[in-house]
Amino acid sequence: MNAILPAILFWLFAWALNAWLVRRTPASKTGDRAIRLVVPVLFGVSLLVLWEGFVRGFAVPAVLLPPPSMIWTRLISSLPTLWADFRQTFLKSVLTGYVAGCGLGFLVAIAIDRSPFLQKGLLPLGNFVSALPVVGIAPIMVIWFGFDWPSKVAVVVIMTFFPMLVNTVTGLASASSMEKDLMQTYAASWFQTLVKLRLPAAWPFIFNALKINSTLALIGAIVAEFFGTPIVGMGFRISTEVGRMNVDMVWAEIAVAAVAGSVFYGVVALVERVVTFWHPSVRSGRT
């Protein structure tokens, strides 16, 4: 119980400091950015301190919930294994499947936009396939493409293809009739209208799909590894170490996956700010 009181006191101090910081109005953008960075970091650290204090104070068995210090020790001591798993799952399966799925979904959306037949025939099918659970798709992909990372890429492609397809089709249709009439007045071709009007209008929808897919791709690859993989990968390590009761290693893998997914999402969001700088949500400082 001795560890609980200091943890609660630290949490109260962090809460009060954050409440004071969010009420500040910095005179410079640098100060504003510093506050935006410090507040979530301090909040996260306070949660970790509470976690550490309560687990140690109530003597929670490590097999149920290890303290953050134990997870950090395991993470540092297992860097080669974690790197091999990260390379197998994220660099090979996630990135490859993400690029292929999003790119294919974008190209098919352009084709659907040109063809009313495809729009009426393929979109309902896409909505049906997108509702299929990954736990049902993954074993089939393993049978078709083998146990290595190509089968995980196939799962990621399926999971990312249809969000990109639906969002791109919706975005291409978001341009107003008045704007389209103006392009016709200028005798613009279909391609010129697409590049100069309809794609810029669709960028917020496209980046919405890219951000959604950045998390779906990681989830799909990890879950797919539960159903067959070489002796490497985040999903393989999680399922194996759970069976061995090495819960600290499981949490270390979860931490790596969480950081990788957050960084991936953040990179996509930063690219969105650059490309859609004109959008009201970006101009007002929201992403």
Automatic annotation (TrEMBL):
Q: Which InterPro entries match?
A: MetI-like, MetI-like_sf
Note the topology in the membrane. Answer: Multi-pass membrane protein
- Please provide the Gene Ontology terms (biological process) for this protein: transmembrane transport
Query: Which keywords label this protein?
Result: Cell membrane, Membrane, Transmembrane, Transmembrane helix, Transport
Q: Which Pfam families match?
A: BPD_transp_1
Location in the cell reads: Cell membrane
Q: Which PANTHER family match?
A: ABC TRANSPORTER PERMEASE PROTEIN (PTHR30151:SF41), ALKANE SULFONATE ABC TRANSPORTER-RELATED, MEMBRANE SUBUNIT (PTHR30151)
Identify this protein by name.
Answer: ABC transporter permease
